[in-house]
């Protein structure tokens, strides 16, 4: 009997908490989303918004406080690591920094095979295939990471994510540490792989241009909450939440990274205890915004926003 499910990956009211300086920080707060087969779902937000924490929680690489995670219709929230082993081959990640994510002591071939080790598989026959798929000569398998440029290293990291034939890959800022001239090549490579392998992506980024180029659907995250979500066409083309508008205003051009850095630091007392978390930064804030937390409201077929302006 074939399994039936609407989305490849789903979360229901997912919550992740950390303790820092005696305070409890709700890094992910009640996030619900669905990622379809073969689609790119992008979570966009500034540093500290909780988007990378959300991705790690979905992969069950960090502990969750509340909510549920579903993969191919199965509730995997409380599965033990031994029970997750067969599922892990279908869920992989490409990390942000290709200079830190590759073990400098290992040859490329051994790095690419890493995801197969817990499964007890050698994978020698697959290394050449995935290296070729990412545009590298299979001969590089005997070399070490320090012999390659940043773009080539990221291709190696992508090859590693593909070795186990996954259905779902998290892309955590996959081009942000690369030269601008290389970024487009990597994005086009990822789209080509998606077309060939029918893989689903969860893309994490702060760059609206990357989101627009890559995404089918988008969620905008601020201080652990989804404040706007929908099709990329709607959210990026017709932004409704003031925070989404702010992100669009800092994309792309001269001074972009400097402006993003200015947005990165959430000052003590900036996040209200009650009400909308963005209220103290919002030029449209009203009294209700400071006393009541808005929930996502459907404003069109492919567009939801958590804001009292709508």
UniProtKB/TrEMBL annotation:
InterPro entries: AAA+_ATPase, ABC_transp_ATP-bind, ABC_transporter-like_ATP-bd, ABC_transporter-like_CS, Oligopep_ABC_C, P-loop_NTPase
Keywords carried by this UniProt record: ATP-binding, Nucleotide-binding, Transport
UniProt keyword Transport present: yes
Superkingdom per UniProt: Archaea
CDD domains to which the protein is assigned, alphabetical: ABC_NikE_OppD_transporters
A Pfam family recorded for this sequence: ABC_tran
Ranges for domain ABC transporter: 9-248
Molecular function GO labels: ATP binding; ATP hydrolysis activity
Tagged with keyword ATP-binding: yes
SUPFAM superfamilies listed in its UniProt record: P-loop containing nucleoside triphosphate hydrolases (SSF52540)
GO annotation (BP), single: transmembrane transport
Family the UniProt entry places it in: Belongs to the ABC transporter superfamily.
Designated name of the protein: ABC transporter ATP-binding protein
């Amino acid at each position: 009997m074939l399994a039936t499910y609407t989305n490849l990956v789903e979360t229901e009211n997912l919550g992740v908490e950390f303790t820092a300086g005696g305070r409890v920080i709700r890094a992910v707060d009640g996030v619900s989303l669905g990622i379809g087969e073969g689609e790119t779902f992008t979570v966009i937000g500034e540093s500290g918004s909780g988007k990378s924490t959300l991705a790690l929680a979905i992969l069950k690489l960090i502990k969750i406080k509340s909510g549920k995670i579903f993969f191919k219709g199965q509730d995997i929230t409380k599965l033990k690591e031994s029970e997750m082993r067969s599922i892990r081959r279908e869920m992989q990640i490409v990390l942000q920094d290709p200079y830190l994510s590759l073990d400098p002591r290992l040859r490329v071939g051994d790095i690419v095979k890493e995801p197969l080790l817990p499964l007890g598989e050698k994978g020698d026959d697959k290394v050449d295939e995935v290296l070729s798929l990412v545009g590298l000569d299979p001969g590089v398998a005997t070399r070490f990471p320090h012999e390659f440029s940043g773009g080539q290293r990221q291709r190696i990291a992508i090859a590693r994510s593909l070795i186990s034939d996954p259905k779902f890959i998290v892309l955590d800022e996959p081009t942000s540490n690369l030269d601008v001239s290389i970024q487009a090549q990597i994005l086009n490579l990822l789209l080509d792989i998606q077309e060939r392998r029918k893989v689903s992506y969860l893309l994490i980024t702060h760059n609206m241009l990357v989101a627009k180029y890559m995404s089918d659907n988008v969620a905008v995250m601020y201080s652990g909450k989804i404040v706007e979500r929908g099709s990329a066409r709607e959210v990026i083309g017709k932004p409704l939440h003031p925070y989404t508008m702010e992100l669009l205003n800092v994309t792309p051009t001269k001074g972009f990274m400097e402006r993003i850095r200015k947005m990165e630091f959430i000052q003590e007392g900036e996040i209200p205890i009650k009400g909308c978390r963005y209220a103290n930064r919002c030029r449209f804030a009203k009294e209700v915004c400071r006393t009541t937390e808005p929930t996502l409201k459907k404003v069109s077929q492919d567009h939801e926003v958590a804001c009292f302006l709508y």
